[in-house]
Design brief:
The chain has 450 residues and is α+β, with helices and mostly antiparallel strands. It contains ten helices and 19 strands. A hairpin with a 5-residue loop joins strand 5 and strand 6. The longest helix is centred in the N-terminal third of the chain and has 30 residues. It starts with a strand and ends with a strand.
């Protein structure tokens, strides 16, 4: 079922008849605003992405509306400049689901044992609330019911599993492994078998009453970074009802500065002293986040379920700042460093210390500051265990060479060319083993090439 969406030029439509009021003192308001801004940072940053993908047909990011997939079946090259840090390992399949009227059914095909894919399910808070894929559900075909917080029912016949979300709008970020440009047609054939349909269509029963039309406010990054974050948060909270028990207390506290589902927000209707206090709280939050960001050197542990993150809203915010929609660590491990191409470098993996991956691993090179793939004579943009011709040592060790110039005869098979200046190397381990998850295994320290 496809739901019509409406975009309005107004910042927020008044969606509630609730009176506009705050009951906090200026001192309380400052503290509450700091806490609320950190809480809201990830869901609002996410809205900045999904509102374009699902509700704005004129946006290049538009995927076709709600409840449909848009597949990206291509091997990225330096000519692709619309996505930063493009991932050549696993082309994306994007979808956003509106679960207000009824659940959706995600159907996936059987895949060969050497083909990795994952469907990451993301709620509006950016929690990874579920997974479908070879790691979590296996290589066989299956049908999975994705339901919103208000749905109640038994598992229908033919459904492998019910995956229930805390929010009525959720995202699916699918990834399908690509083994080089010649493999694109095979990836596209698999992607064509990913299917979404309403539960009523799956069961061949009557269609329920459509959900109401929504006016989606346009995302403005300046407003999102000001006291007007409250308007965005109030809009998004309507899709997260009922409030989960562990957030009842914090929502009662937030209500003191005008935060509530569908509640009208207007800075002009706020007492000037309270508004000034809220502004101070927003600035306090930004300072606190900047301080934590300086110390957050890895994205591992920033993404996961609510149970995993344990309502740590600062960590949730850091995940959104470092890179929205990262996989939970049990699905993928991320690492890397910034290097200098004018200084020939090597990464040496001793025998038995290769990246511990159930599926595969890769190292991808990006230019700085634009974080795009680097054009080079080898047309090689990443290197890993699937790279053809990779040469291992007699003891099964592996040395990867990084630099602007060739590392020399006999070493180019293991060379990942870099620009002459600064670059970013990103390591990805798909299906990380325990040693990567618990930190026992680490990416080797870069050292001067020999």
């Amino acid at each position: 079922m496809f739901l019509r969406t409406t975009i309005t030029a107004a910042f927020l439509t008044v969606l509630s008849t609730a009176a506009f009021s705050q009951s906090a003192t200026p001192e309380e308001a400052r503290e509450i605003a700091k806490e609320a801004y950190i809480y809201a940072y990830a869901p609002i940053a996410s809205y900045g992405t999904w509102s374009k993908q699902a509700t704005q047909p004129d946006a290049p990011e538009y995927v076709g509306g709600f409840n449909v997939f848009r597949h990206y079946s291509q091997a990225f090259t330096p000519a692709n400049k619309d996505i930063v840090t493009p991932n050549n390992d696993t082309p994306y399949s994007w979808a956003w689901l509106d679960l207000r009227a009824e659940p959706m059914v995600l159907s996936v095909p059987a895949v060969p044992q050497d083909r990795y894919y994952v469907m990451q399910l993301i709620d509006l808070f950016t929690y990874n609330f579920g997974y479908v894929g070879v790691r979590s559900t296996g290589f066989e075909a299956g049908d999975y019911l994705i339901a919103g917080p208000g749905w109640k029912g038994d598992k229908p016949e033919g459904i492998e599993k019910i995956i229930q979300a805390e929010t009525e709008i959720v995202g699916i970020l699918g990834r399908t492994s690509l083994n080089g440009p010649e493999d694109v047609k095979n990836v596209a054939a698999i992607q064509a078998q990913y299917k979404l349909e309403p539960l009523s269509a799956f069961l061949k029963t009557s269609t329920p009453q459509p959900a109401s039309t929504i006016a989606f406010p346009p995302y403005d990054p300046e407003k999102a970074a000001s006291h007007d974050f409250i308007g965005y948060l109030n809009f998004l909270l309507q899709f997260a009802q009922p409030t989960v028990p562990e957030e009842t207390e914090i929502m009662t506290r937030f209500a003191k500065i005008g935060i509530a589902p569908q509640k009208e927000w207007g800075a002009g209707k706020t007492d000037p002293a309270l508004l000034a206090a809220i502004d101070q709280g927003v600035e306090d939050a930004k300072v606190a986040m900047a301080d934590v960001a300086k110390k957050t050197l890895s994205s591992n542990g920033l993404f996961g379920s609510r149970d995993f993150l344990k309502n740590d809203y600062m960590t949730r915010a850091m995940g959104a700042e470092k890179g929205l929609f990262g996989n939970s660590i049990e699905e993928a491990w991320y690492g890397g460093f910034v290097g200098d191409g004018s200084k020939p470098t090597m990464l040496h993996f001793p025998a038995g210390q290769l990246p511990p991956a159930k599926f595969f691993w890769s190292l991808t090179l990006y230019t700085l500051p634009d974080r795009l793939l680097y054009a080079n004579p080898l047309d090689r943009y990443s290197i890993g265990d699937r790279t053809k011709g990779l040469v291992y040592g007699e003891d099964k060790s592996l040395t990867i060479y990084l630099g602007h110039t060739s590392p020399g005869e006999g070493k180019e098979s293991n060379w990942l060319p870099t620009p002459e200046g600064k670059y970013s190397l990103v390591a990805r381990v798909y299906g990380p083993e325990k040693a990567a998850i618990d930190g026992t295994w680490k990416l080797p320290t870069p050292e001067p090439a020999r």
